[in-house]
Design a protein that fits this description.
It is built from nine helices and ten strands. The protein is α/β, with parallel strands linked by helices. It is globular, with a radius of gyration of 24 Å. The N and C termini lie far apart (50 Å).
Amino acid sequence: MAGRAVILLGDGEPAEAKRRLLERAGARIVGEAAEAALAIVAIEDETEALAAIARLKARGVLVNAVDRPDSCDFTLPAIIDRSPVIVAIGTGGASAGLAAALRQRLEALLPATIGPLAERLHALRAAIRLSYPALDARRRALGAAFAQGGALDPLRADPAAVGAWLTTPAAPSDQFVTLRLRSPDPDDLTLGDARALALAERIYHPASIPSAILDRARADAVRIAADAPPGKGESGLTIWMEWA
């Protein structure tokens, strides 16, 4: 949004809140007559708001209408800013209040050091690639480092820890893990189960395992329907799922 024009219509606190958000993003706030691709309508009067929305949409402008989700072409998530790390929480317009409440809870969990940690990792990208030339090994090493209690645990790590972590590079060993599921509900997964799914290279599973469980794994993890666990070891982390 930096340097781009955005139409903002309305007054009062709802409009001021959007103004602050746009200014923080570096947008140029303009009136209805200006040329812009996006508009935010924060007009309280229903008739006046709907008329403004109709005029803007007739021009091909994409509209966000405050408290009128059915009139929105796009919605604005609640944002946690730990630049360059940004966490956005959206409800698709269902409840801005819920998104705000979740943001407040998560805000307290995410330390200010996450931004500098990301910047340090970016600065040392070349060194990380040198220590872990193979993509799979690099991904596994970073996954283990970022895990809870790991060397680069995002909720605890000092940015300076990246350099110390690189002084003793060691890709995690190949692992085979069996996950015994107690129910088809993904919310019944333990923290250990969820962590393993987030790091696994491949998942062997009976056909009866529901997709809701498999969807908790990395998107690029290979899913292999099988009646029994694999008979030989493979590189990285391999998971076999079965019913308890």
